[in-house]
Structure formats: C-alpha cells, structure tokens
Amino acid sequence: MAIADERGLEAVSMRALAERVGVTPMALYRHVKDKAALLDGMVGRLLAALLPSSGVGDQAWDERLSALAHACRKVTQRHPWAVHLLFSRPAVTPDSVRAVDILYIALIEAGVPASEVPRLERLISTFVIGFAASEASGRFAPETLDPRSRRGQLPDSELPGHSRLGPWLDLPVDLTAEFEADLNDIRRLIESTAQQRD
C-alpha cells in the first residue's frame, strides 16, 4: 500500500515489494502466490479498515450502513488508487468477505427479502465506490471552465435539459451533503424493498 501511495498502483509488483522489504522476489512467493494474490490482499487490507471496531449488533442497520459508506469514502480519499482495486477485484480475502457480510446483515435486519439482498448489496457497493472513484479521479472536482465550455460549446437549443437546469448546474456542489442525500435515498429504497416480503 505504501508503494501505491507513493508511486501509484501501476508501480505495485512482486519485484517492487521485494525491494521494499529487502528480500529477493522469489522469497515472496512462499507468502504470496502471485501479483493477483498481492492485489487481493491489498483489497482485503483496504476493506479491513472499514470493519467496525465494536460489535455489529451495537448499531441499527442504517447506522451501520452509513458508517461503512463513510469509512469507504475516507479510505479512498486517503488512497485514491484504491477505487480501481475495489472496482476490479472480487471480495475473496477474509476481511473483504467480512465487509460484504456487514452489508448483508444490515439489509437482512432492515427486513429486505433474502432474494433482494445480493442485488441491493451490489447497488450500495457500486454507488459508494463509484462516488469515491468520481472524487478520486477528479470527475467531481470544481470546474475551471465556464458553463458554456462545460457544455461542449453547443447552442442552448441543442441542450434543452441543460438549458432548463442551467441555474442549478452552475451552483457549487457540496459533495459531502450530496453523499448524505444519496445515502438517505438508498435508505428509503431499502425500506421500500423491505416492505415487499418473499
């Protein structure tokens, strides 16, 4: 993780890790099968940071969901390279699976039918990681272009939606407030889904 923080995810390799810890690359293979396993381990370490220090039953389901989402956002703000790993690697290490299980239990406790839990877990994970990825990549960064340039220099007549929303599109965005609003929308979706029993 230190190598990725310093030089980016593309710099992470078995050779770079061996140099960092002062061993030969072959010595690492007794501990890590290959680069894929190394990346899976990094995902596990990232997701371990999301695990609550207190027991899962200490919070209501929605508080647990919110805490996990906020923890994920903080981890990706600290390690912007992490979003690529979280989007591209499956949850296969024990810590990764534990993080997913926290979401499963929260959804079950919310009353979501078992048949809908996997789908909603994917939706929540994709939203949280996608939001974090958009922040880390600069997609949500404050615009340096004027509104006309941001709209591809097309005439308003070709962008009726943009034209109608112009005053709102040009306002500064509070990403933290937007993240909270999005989590509230997800909470309402979960509650609505919970009313549909198996």
TrEMBL record:
Top-level taxonomic group: Bacteria
Transmembrane residue ranges: none
UniProt keywords, alphabetically: DNA-binding, Transcription, Transcription regulation
Sequence ranges assigned to domain HTH tetR-type in this UniProt record: 1-50
Ranges annotated as DNA-binding: 13-32
Keyword Transcription regulation in annotation: yes
Segments for region (Disordered): 142-163
InterPro entries: Homeodomain-like_sf, HTH-type_TetR-like_transc_reg, HTH_TetR, Repressor_TetR_C, Tet_transcr_reg_TetR-rel_C_sf
PANTHER family assigned: HTH-TYPE TRANSCRIPTIONAL REGULATOR RUTR, TRANSCRIPTIONAL REGULATORY PROTEIN
The protein, known as: TetR/AcrR family transcriptional regulator
Native source species: Streptomyces albipurpureus
